[in-house]
Amino acid sequence: MALTGELFIASKRVKRDGEGFRAIAAATGQEIEPSFSLATPQDVDAAVAAAEAAFPIYSQLPREKRAEFLDAIADEIDALGDTLTERAHAESGLPAARLNGERGRTSGQMRLFARELRLGEYLRARIDHAIPDRAPAPKPDLRLRLVPLGPVTVFGASNFPLAFSVGGGDTASALAAGCPVVVKGHSAHPGTAELVAGAITRAAEKTGMPAGVFS
Known about the structure:
By secondary structure, the protein is α+β, with helices and mostly antiparallel strands. The protein has a single domain (7-213), classed as 3-Layer(aba) Sandwich (Aldehyde Dehydrogenase, Chain A, domain 1). It is 46% helix and 15% strand. The strands form four sheets. It has a two-stranded antiparallel ribbon. The chain has a two-stranded antiparallel sheet with strand order 3-4. A two-stranded antiparallel ribbon has the order 5-6.
C-alpha cells in the first residue's frame, strides 16, 4: 500500500504543493519517503466545518450503526497487517512484537467500544416518572442520559504510534459517543498515521457515515 503524503479532510485526500516534511528513520536518522503535506489554516477550518456539519447526522444515528462503523475500522486496521507494523517500526524504532501487540490493542479498543454501544449502558439513562395527581402540585416526568457534545480534536502521542494516535482510544471513544473527530497526527510517525487514517476513511465509506465524521 503506497503512501502519498496526503491529508484526509472529510473523507477526501488532499495534496498540498510546496513545503512538506518527511519522517525520520529511527534506526538511521535518515529521511523516509514520501513527503507529507502540511495542513494550512484553511485545511483546519475545512475539517472542523465538515465535522460540525456531520455532527447533527452522526450523533443521531442508531447505536448499532455507529457500532458497525467501529467494527469496520477495527477490521480495516487489522487488514493492514505487516504493512502497518513495518512502517511503524521504521518511524518509531519500536520492535515488531510490541507493535503487533499495539495494533491488536488498537483494533480491540474499537471493538470494545462497539460492544459498549450495543449494550447502551454507557448512556446512564435515568427516568423519574411523573406523578400527575401529586399534591400540592403534579410531579413532572424527568429523564437524564449522557449525550454527545460535538466535534472532538485528538492529538496523536509520540510514544504510542497506534493505540494513542490517529485510531487510538481517544478517537474510538469520541466516535462511539457520537462525536466527529479531527486528528492532528504526530510528526514522528506520519506514514503510520496515513495508513490508519486511510483505514478509518474506508470504514466510514463502507458503512455510510457522513463525510465529516473523520479528518
